[in-house]
């Protein structure tokens, strides 16, 4: 067995420095390039990645470089590798039973009546994976040799890389029961049938030349999955007893990113595997457990979630502490895959040099890992220069202008309980009823209207300087005029301006608040071919000038109906940005909240009587560990309340959440104390109203009646049925009618038709109440 490398990373961005993979994959989907060309682009990206990682200091031949490429998603890769695809896609297999690239993409994206795999959040990140569907009859069989071919491709280029796969426990723990499975079926019950396929794969990887394999088992750290920590641990013990016992296999490195392993460390330590990866950014150095003496501990001390250069000396201290556990070896690594950070700081040409010196994207993090690895091998003195340079950058960051602004800090320090409290709800209802005079079942939308090609083109022209600010402004006003006229014509009750001026609901605010910067090339995969460019929140946040007021005021001037002001909430702004790590998130959230509070005051001043503060990411930041959840919910709810509590009694505050699995967050949603909350409900056929009714939720609620994720136009009778179900369970005075989410990804044709049907369905239901 060869030694584990002294330094490694758990994975590297796959999309390419210039999003080459996105472009190639989308060209393939569009029929503009063929499969061979796509494969060769992808091979080129993999080759460039290996070279890049070697240049940053990872070994070419010691399994330090992870083979972590994916065309779309690592969970889908695992599903296709073990052949666990839903019955509705079975006919897509090749004659020899393998699943090729076109089939892979069809499973990811669906085709006609064939629904794709569902997509959901990957642990506590903004990455979304495809949810495997497993039933009692799912047949597991090796159905793709893609990962083997990548190992061989690397060997031909002179590398010995380390293949990375999602582990069997995590794969099943994240799966949902297939449609045809009996009630209560648990995918994890299929573990013993799945493990032999992993065994076959490991043996094949060994034959292909892999000395080490990385098996990702993040499920082992989570307390937020249907299976308990103990059940997951028991499953891991069973699976790794088999895999570890194989005669022919690579050495096994089980990585457990995203939080502390806690009790499951003992399980992995007792298993016949060779290395264990610990997240020492989210977790701390654990106590020693039995079984470590023959294992390498891979210390994830470089943060894979954020883009800060961070405290390298502290990271090295952590690795030294890890050495105290008596393991056979200690290696330096990232806490998670680097798929959550952009490629390279060097690609940013417009950021301030001072800010740049504080940052580390994937390439810089690789270099940090190799520095730490050298320290482990040669002693601290050998890397003293690098540690000092990182400490100096950190010190510079703490003292730089804008990082700590007295005026902002004085304001948050002076906050009292009253600043978080809007006062009596009944009084608000009465004041709002007389101010707004809305009909029963008021009709509204979530905010955005279709972002047409024209809008994107105008924005691009404005950014490139091809049209003037005045021309762009005029274009947006015309667009707003059209959207307002359409809503009046349709007969909606609370209108929106449509958000044509926003590229992105967080970046738009980041661009207009102090304390933020935006990147040029800081793309991070969010799912499949989609990437986002999170803003960087580096300093104290304040609002130099009103942001949305002119647009809302203009839109209100076009109609006698109430125009809804539209803001993104503090938690969502934090969740979808890279946030400073030198103070508690709660403090940063309150700064953002105060900026929004000022915006709300200005909107009111401008005559806006209804204001929505979107918090679609409220549940996203929920910690994986139960013990951490109450504190998170406390500060996140508090920041929302701080942002809205300055609103007048007669101002109606709305919020919007993109999901309906209320579960753990129902109390938090109630505690937001928004006058009206809109949520997704159409996809689950309004099932959520039962939970809402049972929870005693007594504020306004708009369960969505239109699934905007699909181009499908819901029929009037269908919407009517959904509404009648809602009316049955929830008092009508609480109910609102709206789509599930914003309309920006839809076209006008289906938007018009759908909204028309919603209005007609509402008219019919109103007649009977
Ligand atoms: N107001 C936003 C919109 O309609 C909300 C988007 C979201 O919830 N993600 O686009
Ligand atoms: Zn939404």
Automatic annotation (TrEMBL):
It catalyses: 5-methyltetrahydropteroyltri-L-glutamate + L-homocysteine = tetrahydropteroyltri-L-glutamate + L-methionine. Its cofactor is Zn(2+). Zn(2+) binds at residues 656, 658, 680, 741. The active site is at residue 709. It is an enzyme of class 2 (transferase). Pfam families: Meth_synt_1, Meth_synt_2. L-methionine binds at residues 446-448, 499, 614. Pathway: Amino-acid biosynthesis; L-methionine biosynthesis via de novo pathway; L-methionine from L-homocysteine (MetE route): step 1/1. L-homocysteine binds at residues 446-448, 499, 614. Its EC number is 2.1.1.14. The keyword Methyltransferase applies. It comes from the Bacteria. Gene3D superfamilies: 3.20.20.210. Binds 1 zinc ion per subunit. Residues 8-323 form the Cobalamin-independent methionine synthase MetE N-terminal domain. 5-methyltetrahydropteroyltri-L-glutamate binds at residues 19-22, 121, 576, 620. Residues 441-763 form the Cobalamin-independent methionine synthase MetE C-terminal/archaeal domain. Keywords: Amino-acid biosynthesis, Metal-binding, Methionine biosynthesis, Methyltransferase, Repeat, Transferase, Zinc. Signal peptide: none annotated. Catalyzes the transfer of a methyl group from 5-methyltetrahydrofolate to homocysteine resulting in methionine formation. Belongs to the vitamin-B12 independent methionine synthase family. HAMAP family: Meth_synth. PANTHER family: 5-METHYLTETRAHYDROPTEROYLTRIGLUTAMATE--HOMOCYSTEINE METHYLTRANSFERASE (PTHR30519). This is 5-methyltetrahydropteroyltriglutamate--homocysteine methyltransferase. The lineage of its organism: Bacteria, Bacillati, Actinomycetota, Actinomycetes, Micrococcales.
């Amino acid at each position: 067995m060869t030694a584990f490398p002294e330094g490694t990373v758990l994975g590297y961005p796959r999309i390419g420095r210039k999003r080459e993979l996105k472009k190639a994959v989308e060209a393939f989907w569009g029929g503009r390039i063929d499969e061979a060309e796509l494969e060769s682009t992808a091979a080129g990206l993999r080759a460039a990645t290996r070279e890049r990682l070697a240049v940053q200091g990872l070994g070419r031949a010691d399994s330090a470089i992870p083979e972590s490429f994916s065309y779309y998603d690592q969970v889908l890769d695992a599903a296709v590798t073990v052949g666990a695809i839903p019955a509705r896609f079975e006919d897509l297999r090749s004659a020899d039973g393998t699943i090729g690239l076109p089939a892979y993409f069809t499973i990811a994206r669906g085709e006609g009546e064939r629904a794709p795999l569902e997509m959901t959040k990957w642990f506590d990140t903004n990455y979304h994976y495809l949810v495997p569907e497993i039933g009692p009859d799912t047949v597991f069989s090796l159905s793709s040799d893609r990962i083997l071919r990548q190992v061989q491709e690397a060997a031909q280029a002179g590398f010995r890389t380390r293949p990375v796969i999602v582990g069997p426990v995590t794969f099943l723990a994240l799966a949902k029961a297939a449609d045809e499975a009996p009630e209560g079926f648990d995918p994890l019950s299929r573990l013993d049938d799945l493990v032999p396929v992993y065994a076959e794969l490991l043996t094949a990887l060994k034959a292909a030349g892999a000395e080490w394999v990385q098996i990702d088992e993040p499920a082992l750290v989570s307390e937020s999955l249907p299976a308990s920590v103990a059940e997951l641990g028991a499953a891991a013990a069973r699976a790794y007893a088999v895999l570890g016992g194989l005669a022919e296999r690579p050495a096994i490195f089980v990585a457990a990113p995203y939080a502390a392993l806690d009790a499951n460390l003992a399980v992995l330590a007792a298993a016949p595997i060779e290395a264990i990866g610990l997240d020492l950014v989210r977790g701390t150095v654990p106590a020693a457990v039995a079984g470590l003496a023959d294992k390498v501990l891979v210390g994830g001390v470089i943060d894979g979630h954020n883009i800060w250069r961070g405290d390298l000396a502290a990271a090295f201290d952590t690795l030294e502490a890890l050495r105290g556990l008596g393991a056979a070896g200690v290696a330096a690594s990232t806490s998670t895959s680097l798929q959550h950070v952009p490629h390279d700081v060097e690609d940013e040409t417009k950021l301030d040099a001072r800010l740049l010196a504080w940052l580390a994207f994937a390439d810089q993090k690789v270099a940090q890992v190799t520095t730490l690895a050298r320290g482990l091998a040669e002693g601290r003195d050998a890397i003293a220069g690098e540690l000092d340079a990182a400490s100096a950058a950190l010190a510079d960051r703490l003292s730089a202008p804008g990082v700590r602004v007295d005026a902002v800090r004085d304001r948050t320090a002076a906050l009292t309980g009253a600043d978080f409290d809007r006062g009596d709800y009944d009084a608000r209802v009465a004041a709002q009823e007389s101010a707004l005079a809305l009909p029963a079942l008021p009709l509204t939308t979530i905010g955005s209207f279709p972002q047409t090609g024209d809008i994107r083109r105008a924005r691009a022209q404005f950014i490139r300087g091809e049209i003037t600010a005045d021309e762009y402004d005029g274009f947006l006003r015309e667009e707003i005029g059209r959207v307002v006229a359409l809503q009046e014509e349709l007969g909606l009750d609370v209108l929106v301006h449509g958000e044509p001026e926003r590229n992105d609901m967080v970046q738009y605010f980041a661009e207009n608040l102090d304390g933020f910067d935006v990147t040029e090339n800081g793309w991070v995969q969010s799912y499949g071919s989609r990437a986002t460019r999170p803003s960087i929140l580096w300093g104290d946040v304040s609002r130099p000038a009103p942001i949305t007021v002119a647009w809302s005021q203009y839109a209100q001037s076009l109609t006698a109906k109430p125009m809804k002001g539209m803001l993104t909430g503090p938690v969502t702004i934090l969740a979808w940005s890279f946030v400073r790590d030198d103070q508690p998130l709660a403090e940063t959230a309150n700064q953002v909240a105060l900026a929004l509070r000022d915006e709300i005051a200005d909107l009111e001043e401008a005559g806006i009587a209804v204001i929505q503060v979107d918090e679609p990411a409220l549940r996203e930041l929920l910690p994986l560990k139960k013990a951490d959840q109450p504190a998170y919910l406390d500060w996140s709810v508090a920041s929302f309340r701080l942002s809205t509590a300055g609103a007048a009694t007669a101002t109606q505050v709305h919020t919007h959440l993109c999901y309906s699995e209320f579960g753990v967050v129902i109390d938090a949603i109630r505690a937001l104390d928004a006058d009206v909350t809109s949520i997704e409900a159409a996809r689950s056929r309004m099932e959520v109203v039962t939970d809402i009714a049972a929870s005693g939720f007594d504020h306004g609620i708009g369960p969505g009646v239109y699934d905007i994720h699909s181009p499908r136009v819901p029929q009037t009778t269908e919407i009517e049925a959904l509404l009648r179900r809602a009316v049955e369970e929830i008092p009508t005075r609480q109910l609102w009618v709206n789509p599930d989410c914003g309309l920006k990804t839809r076209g006008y044709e289906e938007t018009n038709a759908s909204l028309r049907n919603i209005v007609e369905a509402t008219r019919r239901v109103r007649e009977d109440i």
